[in-house]
Structure formats: C-alpha cells, structure tokens
Amino acid sequence: MVVNVPLILQPLAILFVGAVLVPLVKVMGAKLNAPKLMDAFAASVLAFTLYKLYALTTQALSGGPVEFYLSGFPPPLGSALRADLLSAFMAMTFCSLGLFVAIYSIRYMEEDTGLDMYYALLLTLVAGLVGVVLAWDFLTLFVFWETMCVSGYVLVGFRKYKWEPVEAGFKYLIMSTFGSIFMFYGVSFLFSLAGTLNFTQMAEALHGVKSPLLYLALCMIVVGFGVTAAMVPFHTWLPDAHPAAPSGISAMLSGVVIKAGVYGMYRSAFTLFNPALYNYGAALMAFGVLTLSVANLMALLQRDIKRLFAYSSIVNIGYIVTGGGIAAYVLSTYGASSPTLASSVAVFALTGALFHVFNHAIGKGLLFLCSGCFLHEAKTRDLAQLEGIGRRMPWTGASLSIGLLALAGVPPLNGFWSKLFIILAGLSIPGDAFMVAVTALLILNAIFAAAYYLWVMQRVILKEPTERASKAREAPLAMALPVVAMAAICIVVGVLPGSILSFADAAARSLLSFILRG
C-alpha cells in the first residue's frame, strides 16, 4: 500500500521516523561491521529533509502558502500547519546547519558512547525546530516547542559523566521552563479574547481591538520567547550551555535554536499585534541595543573561546531584535501619515534582520565548529593556550578567520550586507532622533564587536604557537569539510547575495502580510 503523505508533512515525517530508526541502524551497522553507518544515516536523513523543504519552498513560491490540518478538522478544532515563505526560510536555515553538524559529528563525536541517542536527539531537535516554524496555531507550536526544548536540554548535558554539562543542561531546563510558562499565560489571555488558537482566526478576532489584557499578553509572549532567544536580561543560560555542550550542539544552539525564539517573537507580534495599536517597536529597539551592549562588554571578559562566542551570539540577537524593532516602530509612528514610506522601511529592516538570521547561523555555526576542531586537537578551550593554533591547522584557521570577518561585517562577506540593511533602515528617517540615536549605538556596538573578533583572530592565527598548540594537526576530513564549506558560503553569499537576499525579502513581506493588507 502506498501512503500519500502531504508535502508539508514530509520533512517532519522523515525526521521523526529517522530518529526512531537510528538505534536500529546502529545495530545493523554493528552486524555489517560498518561502524559509521548510523552517522551516515543521520546525515542522509537531514539531506533528504532539506531536499523536501526545498520542494515545499518552491510550492510556496509558486502557489502561495501551503496549509494542512493535522486532525482533518478545520480550525478552531483542528491543529494546523502552514508553510509560507517565512516558515520556509527559517526551516531551510535550521535544516542546513543541522546537516553540517551531523557530518561534523561523524569524527568529532566518535570517542563518545551512546551515539544512537545523540543522533536521534539531533534529528528530534531539528524536527522540533522545523515544526515550530510550520505550526499555525499555538497548541501545535507548543508541542513542537517542547520537542525542541527537551531534546536541547539532553544534548547540552549529553556528556553526563561531567558536572559542567549536567549543570548547564539543568540551568537551561529551568530557565526555558519559566519562559514556556510566560508564553502559556500570554497565550491564555489571547485565547480568552479570541476564542481560538489558530493564528489566522486569532488575527481576525483581535483586529482593531485595543485592550490592557492584550498588552499584558504581548509582554508575556515576548518574555517567553526572549528566554530562548537569549535576549538580555534572559540570556544567562546560554554562556553556560555553550562551553558544556558538544561543539556541534553549541553550533545548533547559537545558530538556530535561539533563532526559534526570535521567530516566535516576530510571528506573534507582527501577526497578532498591529504596531499601529500597540507601539512595541521602541521597546524592541531598546531591548536590542541593551542586548548588544551588555553582551559586548561581557565578551571582553571571557578567556574560554566557546564562552566568548556565546556572548557574541547574544550580540547578534541584539542586531536581529533591533531590526524587528525598527520595522514595528516605523509602522506605528509613520504608518498613518506616510504609509508607503513606513511599509517600505519596515520591509527593508525585516529583510536585513532575517538575512542576518541566515548569516549568523552559518557564520557562528562555523566559529563553533572551528572551536570544536581546536578542542579536538589541543584539548582546551582556553584562548591563552590556543594562541597560534591556526598556524598548525591552516584550513581550520583560515575558515575561522573568514567566519570572524563575516560576523564583523567586513565586505565582501555575507555579514556585511545584513548589518548594512539594518543600519540603513535605522537611518532612513533622519528627522527621527530616537531612530538615529539607536542606530548610532548599533554602529558603535558593531565596531566594538569587530575589534574583539580581530583580537581573537590575531591571537589564534598570527601569534607563535604555544606548546599545546604546536602539537595540533589539521582536523580530520569529516570535521574540516563542513567547516570549509561554511566558510565558502560566507564568501559566496557575500559576493553574490541576490538569491538569499531575495528570499529574505519575500520572507519579510510574508511576515508583514497581515499588517500591510490592513
């Protein structure tokens, strides 16, 4: 019998079935004397999922959003999935990094035990991430959200024979649980007013409604998603989780898991809360700049390379949140008097923010995989002992340099364009003193961050190797290959940004569609 699975369900089905099959493939590999069969299977599952997501994106581009009711009933009774261009953009970004991490883990994790659990959890984590961005009602979103979170907790604490991962995983669990509680209460207020959890029906029911209860709901939802996004002051779990987790999982946390928090914040705010009624743009801009400034200062104090990169990830969340704040601010402040200007600036700002979601996922994922290569060879995360290791590991060192320069915003690398878009959006209305002041702080923080990126590069690449670094050799091929490929993406997307930029623009317009259509 042939089962016809709708296209929108296929990526999720592949990932969940793949996760279930991982232990069986491990047994099969042992019987066939093929110890890497399980690793290759996990990477193949992610590659096939990425192919299906590309097909889903193509369908959404040609025919509009793809919808499916999981229970067979339409809302408000049925759980819904919906693939618009924002969902497709985020899902493909998440799955792409997952594929690189799976390939990298083939050699990086080979000395660990329980790898069937590791790969099953990695596939489950990606499934949760993809499910979050495809969910079109809060009930379905919560199910996938907890799937993502629980697998993330366990992966952070995967090396449970050490205290550091267990402590970091438990801290992540506690803070994320509080975030989920805030989200749950915020959504309960929305449900009490709208009588549905479906995003489309909720947006229609709340259209034009201005209530103190909705302000409270918005604040609670932003705080709930802000915990996972590691937005200051809800960021404290992330710097502990990164050093403790395996480097591939650090890349996933920083590259995509915290972006799920940004997605939830954006989707809820721009779909359900019209900025014309709820002027939350200024608050988002303030939170973004606060996040940038605090994380930049904390990064300077770090001597653990993974912990430094963790604070750098929080900095980049600040850019993304500020971009969304600029979009909401111009819509609320200038939407009535200059609707064309407001909508164009909002799209421009969100395009930059979403483009930075992709650029940071690749760039920061690259940096964490490079730090894992150094840790694999030198057995340390201490920057003082890693000085000069790039000379002993030229491919990894060169890739690290590209990643650092990309995140510093140096042209012609990819990070330059997304930062430029956000800054230009902030300067698009010169007469607005608040926007100009926020953008000035954004620029100062960008320069500050670039300085310590160059400082890291100088220590790791240009200095004479330390005694420990001098014993290092280039990383194994399975680890070096995804690192070099991601560095190449930073260059190619920087030189030829058109395709990804157009995709980000379409995703931004999709996100704003509920507001711009009135």
What's a quick, concise take on this entry?
The chain is mainly alpha-helical. Helix content is 76%, strand content 2%.
Give the topology, please.
Elements: H1 10-31, H2 37-63, E1 66-69, E2 80-83, H3 85-108, H4 115-134, H5 138-156, H6 163-194, H7 199-206, H8 212-228, H9 237-244, H10 247-272, H11 281-300, H12 305-334, H13 339-378, H14 389-392, H15 394-408, H16 414-426, H17 433-462, H18 477-495, H19 498-511, H20 513-516
Antiparallel strand pairs: 1-2
Number of helices: 20
Tally of domains: 2
**Through-space gap between termini:** 47 Å
CA-atom Rg in angstroms: 22 Å
- Shape, please? globular
Q: Helicity level, as a percent range?
A: over 70%
Describe the sheet with the most strands: 2 strands, antiparallel
The number of strands is 2
Unreliable runs, pLDDT <50, ≥5 residues?
none
SS class:
mainly alpha
| Order of the strands making up the biggest sheet | 1-2
Strand content: under 5%
In sequence order, what are the helices and strands, one letter per element? HHEEHHHHHHHHHHHHHHHHHH
Instruction: Estimate the mean pLDDT confidence.
Output: 91
